[in-house]
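Sat 14:20. Reprocessing the chain from the morning session after the first attempt stalled halfway. Input below, unchanged.
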Amino acid sequence: MTIPIFISTNKNYIIPAITLIASVMENTSEKCIFYILHSELTKENKIFIQNSLKEYARLSIEFIKISEDIFKNAPPMGHLTKETYYRIMIPELKTEIDKAIYLDSDMIVNCDIKELYNTDIDSFPLAAAQDKVAQYIPYWMLHSYFMGITSLNYFQAGVLVINTKYFRKNNIKQKFFEILEQYKDKIKTADQDILNLIFADNHKKLDYSFNFHVPLENYLILNKDSDLPAFNNPKIYHFASDKKPWNSNCKYEEIWFKYANKLIEEEKLNEFCA
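Finished this time. Tokens:
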């Protein structure tokens, strides 16, 4: 088995991307191919990524350049970059693949990724974990309400298992761009809002441990959330805010640095984290 995994990155996110990939390979027994979506990586950037990860014999890497023109009308979203939109391209980029994983680069995988890949989505377009911001943070609760999405159904798009065959068969990319044009003045979380407008009522719910949203931990504890058991064994840590392990003091940063320190030279890592 070779597990296809897509990530998006830019010049500023090279070290987080390397760290994410390392965490996958350290915990996974199968071969993995990472498709790195980008619009600006140089030859030197690509060589640096490949050399940093060369110890993993079961790893293959393919770089796929996305034209910036495709998303020229997509609105920027705070700390989110244009690369976040690239995941909608996945089903069209590799038509021979019927099922794929997408991961945000600000993550650490703490499980065998095969467990996530083996999620049965034959009857669903995708699988994703709930985004608790729509359940506990008033601003986001109102946002999901005004978007017409039930907060309990609003999912976090940083971890996706995608039925790419379904996407192609149902021309989801075209629907995506139609909704982007219609809602571009209302969306707050870039492509995540759009994917929710399409699939909030039609997706398989992943266990919360597969997208453990680190900044929301206190909200879950305070509200005695039913997904609290995910704290006992987070399978994927998601540092999903503007505060990352490399730019601030945040909880579980030592887990990120465990993998970053393994592959990145101290001088380069210190420069990145400055």
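The chain has a mean pLDDT of 92.
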